[in-house]
Design brief:
339 residues, alpha/beta, TIM Barrel, eight-stranded parallel barrel, three-stranded mixed sheet, 11 helices, globular
Length: 339
């Protein structure tokens, strides 16, 4: 029996008996953790082991650990990491140093995550902000030039993979131009197709071989004026799979976000019908989790193949001197003018 095509959160730092029974019955493909699930290293290790035990397999466990504003594991137990804009500043002074910093920062994040049983990080972003766009991306981005963004995002992805953690490319095919926060409302981007191909979409093309990707809850009116990318078969087929060429496992962004309309079941079915392989649901609310599970079929066909390929891309971490790496990282970040 194959796992079902969804990734789910949970309510707190300990797996409850009710959640354990639900996960055993519904068999989600993976899990995602948030700050509410995290208190200390030993606790996180116990939680990740309990989640995998609940489904009886080595299920992927995800987290959003970018650095800056988006960091679920933080002080005092884990280091604070800088946002993407820091690597952009270093890159603009010295491309080699910028790429090294982005790769090393991600490698250190992977070290932290792997130590507590987390093997997927929702990083890197290839979103390209423009003047006047909503601040939800802002300093999370690796700059405003597509070539620079792709280079730094690729370096970060490589650092994660060296540390045994799978990267998730987000937010396909681009959230940088959006003028609203999709956590709260549905953004519409009115740029023409040629501009999008040259900027927003171009930043993702060099990263198309990454094993996992996440959609954007953004409408691109020049291509599909009615549906956000997450629920648009046109956007998935023509842009994400077509122009960008992304062939990895495609997950929705969180279907409980304010950008989407309809019930949780309707949102889940729409995302899967559009071409997402799995649905992501994050808030840990049991009633919503039930609705997502009931509307997520077992993984089959191309979705199952891509899910298997993603998991087969997991590697044991390479040898790593973490003390030396942290010292080198501090030097690089200091050279970026943020120490």
């Amino acid at each position: 029996m194959a796992p079902r095509a969804f990734i789910t959160g949970l309510a707190g730092p300990v797996l409850s008996p009710d959640e354990k029974a639900f996960f055993r019955e519904s068999d989600p493909w993976g899990f995602i953790l948030f700050k509410r699930n995290i208190s200390a290293p030993a606790q996180v290790s116990e939680l990740t082991a309990a989640l995998r035990e609940a489904v009886g397999r080595d299920a992927p466990i995800l987290v959003d650990q970018e650095g800056g504003r988006v960091q679920r594991l933080g002080p005092p137990h884990w280091p604070a990491y800088p946002p993407g804009a820091t690597y952009a500043r270093i890159y603009q002074r010295n491309k080699t140093a910028g790429l090294e910093a982005a790769r090393l920062g991600a490698r250190l994040i992977a070290y932290d995550l792997a130590a507590v049983g987390i093997d997927v990080d929702c990083l890197p972003l290839a979103d390209v902000p423009v003047a006047g766009s909503d601040a939800v991306i802002g300093d999370r981005a690796y700059g405003t030039d597509p070539e620079q963004v792709a280079a730094l995002a690729g370096a970060a992805a490589g650092g994660l993979q060296e540390g045994g953690v799978l990267p998730v490319l987000k937010h396909l095919p681009g959230h940088g131009r959006a003028t609203a926060d999709s956590h709260l409302a549905l953004p519409t981007v009115d740029a023409d197709r040629a501009t999008l191909d040259r900027t927003d979409f171009a930043a993702f093309k060099p990263l198309s071989a990454l094993p996992l990707g996440m959609t954007a809850h953004v409408v691109f009116s020049a291509i599909d004026p009615k549906h956000p990318a997450t629920t648009s078969a046109t956007m998935v087929r023509e842009v994400i799979r077509g122009f960008i060429g992304f062939q990895g496992l495609l997950m929705s962004d969180d279907v409980s976000m304010g950008a989407l309309s309809g019930t949780l079941g309707e949102r889940s079915r729409a995302a899967l019908a559009a071409g997402c392989d799995v649905v992501l649901h994050c808030n840990g609310k049991r009633e919503e989790m039930d609705a997502v599970a009931q509307n997520s079929p077992e993984l089959a066909g191309e979705a199952a193949r891509r899910a298997d390929a993603a998991l087969k891309a997991r590697r044991k971490p390479r040898d790593f001197d973490v003390i030396q790496a942290r010292a080198r990282f501090a030097v690089l970040i200091g050279e970026g003018g943020v120490a």
